[in-house]
Amino acid sequence: MSGDFPPEILVEILHRLPVKSLVKFTSVCKAWNSLITDQTFIFDHLDQTIQASNGNGSLFLQLYRRTREAGNQCFDYEEFYSLYSHNQQIDHFSVERFPLSRLFQLYDYSTVVGTCDGLVCIADYSILDLATILIWNPSIRKYMVLPEPILTYSTGNRQHERYQLFFGFGFDAKNKDYKVIRFVTLGDKESVPQVEVFSLASRSWRSIPFRASPFLLSQYLRNIPQVFVNGVVHWVVCRRSDDHILNFILSFDVVEETFGELTLPQHLRESTSVLSILQGGDSLCVLHTYCEEDKYFYSIWVMKEYGVAGSWNEVFRSDLKLCGGISTVLALCADGKVVLVLKGRDVVLLDPVTQLVKPLTDLKCFNAFAGSYVKSLVFINGEPDVMSC
């Protein structure tokens, strides 16, 4: 296997090669295949890739384009996935588009729960009992469908339609394990959700206790992905206090599998406007949409020091009329640029300092997701439940 190199030097060289090359090298010989598909090598390569990116990984986009069927008012939906890698030296984006498996097109509407290192979690929310969840590695075109969860509800139950699902996705660095968190809760009142966790390592679901105070699920949460930062998954939720609604961040430690709460700045905590968690690279961000003097604004708040309540800072504030009209804020990049969907359905990258706008795609979309991404070899070792797309 080593040829002219000592084995340890060869391994170090392979750790620094791109995923595409390593996939090809699995066909060189049995020894190289055994090395590259080994779990230790896979995660060592991932660690090396993350370190080399220096917080400037790629941007993963999911775009939905709505098309009208001829002769009626019905709409079809086309789904696109792309990866944008930024070369800061020449200020250029290279774009890689991912072909869709037929499986992804079987559902009316799927949502990206989140991205975590080299994997993407996708869920179909259309039917409570049948919500399909996928874990996908776009870089090597591999995915798996998660087994059926433990918590299901009969469609004969009158309260069935009142239940809501929401998810989380994160990486357990201690045990080298990706985990999906699935909540089932009543959407119209404060309640203690039922919670289960899927472990990719064990390929199974486990019910876990929810040891925290009841909360009210935001009506916007279902359309806003969670955020995984600092080994913790986060959602913005709220709780009633007397006649007021108090917003806070619900957290889930992926290693310890424990819940906690993070405090927002006072005016966000008491705001009746729209709050949502936001992808912000390695930082925890919150998006605030509000009205002031008959004008609508977006503002992005970043927790500069994780877990410290007083470390929230506003890093971006804009009238929704900027750039001809902002429809949605998708993400805050590590370099401070903001990913936006404009009123004309264009997806762009805005530099808040220079106010320069760079189109990210020529596709018009009615809905989109943006998340950070680094390429990985996870799923390369050919488990029987992993499929190609």
Automatic annotation (TrEMBL):
Residues 1-46 form the F-box domain. It comes from Acacia crassicarpa (northern wattle). PROSITE patterns: FBOX. Pfam families: F-box, FBA_1. This is F-box domain-containing protein. SUPFAM superfamilies: F-box domain.
